[in-house]
Amino acid sequence: MRYFKRPFGVFLIVMLLSSLSPMSSHGMSESVRQALERLHDSNKDVRQQAYETLTRKGDASVIPILKAFLTGLLENRDGELVIYGPRVQTPQKKREYPLLDALTGKPVVNEKGEPQYAEELGPARMKANRTERNTITQIIKALALQHSDPEKRIGAILAAGDKADFSLLPVLQKQLEANPQKITKQALRGSVARILMVHGNKEEKIKAADVLGKEGSARAGSSLRKALQLEANRDPEIVSAIRDAMIRIDRYQSWIKVAQNLFSGLSLGSILVLMALGLAVIFGLMGVINMAHGEFMMLGAFTTYAVSVGFRLYLPPEIYSYYFLVAVPAAFMLSACAGWLCEWALIRHLYGRPLETLLATWGLSLVLIQSVRVLFGDTLSLVPPEWLKGSLEVSTDLVFPINRLFIIGFCTLSTLLFYLIVQRTKLGLLLRSTVQDRETAATLGVPVRRVDGLTFALGTGLAGLAGCVIPLYDKINPGMGQGYVVDSFMVVVLGGLGKLAGVIIGGMGLGFLSKFIEPFLHAVYGKTAVLAMIIVFLQWRPSGLFPSKVRLADDQ
Q1: In a domain, 471, yes or no
Q2: Can you tell me the distance from the alpha carbon of 360 to that of 354, in angstroms, rounded to the nearest whole number?
Q3: In angstroms, how far is CA 405 from the centroid of its own chain?
Q4: Structural domain of residue 17, as residue ranges?
Q5: pLDDT digits (tens, 9 = 90+) for 401-415
Q6: Distances from the Cα of 143 to the Cα of 4, 5, 22, 25, 36, angstroms
Q7: Cβ neighbours of 18 (radius 10 Å)
Q8: Is residue 277 domain-resident?
Q9: Are 104 and 36 in a shared domain?
Q10: How far is CA 205 from CA 19, 160, 240, 358, in A?
Q11: How far apart are CA 406 and CA 409, in angstroms?
């Protein structure tokens, strides 16, 4: 089987295979430095010797230099290789090219230690010969397969398979024989199989189809579909092997979709539970339909944003990733204090008049939205902490974002703390007694007015906690709460007001239901379908899953 069309390409890969080894941690060798300086030599033989040296002794640190050489952004300034970086705004308010040391990647500085810039590209720039650009590109691809960064190395391996790059097949097979780590081995095996599906013989294609079928990834399925189009009118055995592999992949991918929907539903349900807890306790104790509940969640989200901005502007950069540890109590306290103030100034004067409290809290939501819009503007986003970035790959194509996992854990912990407060503290005892029999509790000396204010503050504080996790995965805006408050009310109605279990089951049920219906319907139609299902359910159980046994506040 022929591996290359050009003799020099064969020689490059042979040289690379003979020196294939893990990335070294020491600095760039002198021979590699000299080879880089000879890239623009007028003698073709000297340039080819430089390519051979880079292939045998180079590593991934050479890649940026070769890319700059391809694009004409490399220059030899008095024996020092310099790269022109992308244009930036300089302190002198000019758009100029920063100069970077090609060997270290650091900015070139003058005697005063100030970064150097260039207004225009220099005339002495080094640029690859047109006839040798493919050779340089091949070197870059081969060196990328040995990158010391596992993510970049795996990315290069997968890219080789995606493009079915036949010239890199020997390098991939050599690395696969070295028995690398599991995740790298999986990427190598899949890329080799995808290349062989295009360029292999009959036996190799059948074996590659079996490998891809066992892998089960969407990438493997895409390669098999392309191969099926090429083999449709050729060998029936290859076609049969491809179709069998595609059936296995489709079966596996269907389970992956179910797992992803379950995870998404659990994430959404966790936030809805936290939102609905505060809404349920406020309505259960005081009979107040709080239409501004979503805006208290919005206050928590913008508090998190404000804390992150404060950390970025006034504290050292190395502690920026810990801003969320301060944002959580800040979001709870601000939302709780705002809720207590609203209850004291507005809500307590409207007890026993549900329609008027509904209109008053709706007006309050508009005031909060416009106030935040004036202070912060419209749509905003923030950078999540470093320890919440990335993802956890549980299986092939089954990846759980770390920030979503954190949200599930955070909401679970907050719900547990709320339960402990209600069941194990004096405030919880007073709250439960007031909910069960308000008049008797007042007769026994319970300060029901104070309990009302603290309960309202607790409910809005829970909404603030729900809001502080929203910026971890989505943009925020002053009107964001209105989308969540509708779902929260549906959770309260669905679960009933009797027990915490009703809110939890209702929130999780609504979260799962939404994520399983939305893929089949448009988002709007999905919401409509969920609402219709809840209406049908309430025809059967008008009081929800757990009927309320509380006595709402009397007219006062």
Answers
A1: yes
A2: 10
A3: 11
A4: 1-72+128-148
A5: 999 999 999 999 998
A6: 18, 20, 11, 15, 15
A7: 10
A8: yes
A9: no
A10: 29, 17, 11, 68
A11: 5
